[in-house]
Amino acid sequence: MMTGYKFAVGTTVYVSRRSLSGQSGDGPFKVLARYPSDTSGPLYRIRSVLGSEERMVPEHELSRPAERDPRDVRRSSGR
Q1: Is 71 helix (H, G, I), strand (E, B) or coil?
Q2: CA nearest 9: which of 35, 28, 38, 39?
Q3: Would you kindly state where each structural domain of the chain is located, as residue ranges?
Q4: How far apart are the C-alpha atoms of 9 and 24, rounded to whole Å?
């Protein structure tokens, strides 16, 4: 039984850093499509907002911008 999706098509999301190991593509992504999965929960096809990279990612590896861990946000001190 499908419980629903956490992210709508068109939503901006971030991929957890641990799932990016060895891959480029840090930054925001847009949800392009949603797919059911019996093994890992809902899957999403996402595309980088900053480039052309696309990938399939399980829902548990995605977060909304407001849900990101503040330690993952790199801010310039300006000095």
Answers
A1: helix
A2: 35
A3: 12-68
A4: 23
Write the CA distances from 28 to 21, 39, 51, 63, integer angstroms. Answer: 16, 26, 10, 10
CA separation, residue 42 to residues 21, 49, 71 (Å):
21, 21, 27
CATH topology of domain 12-68: SH3 type barrels. (2.30.30)
Report pLDDT digits (tens) over 11-27: 999 998 665 444 544 68
Burial of residue 56 (CB within 10 Å: 0-12, 13-18, 19+) is: exposed
Give the Cα separation of 71 and 59 in Å (integer): 21
Burial of 29 (0-12, 13-18, 19+ CB in 10 A): buried
**Residue range 28-50, pLDDT digits in tens:** 999 999 999 888 789 999 999 99
- How is residue 7 written in tokens? 């992210």
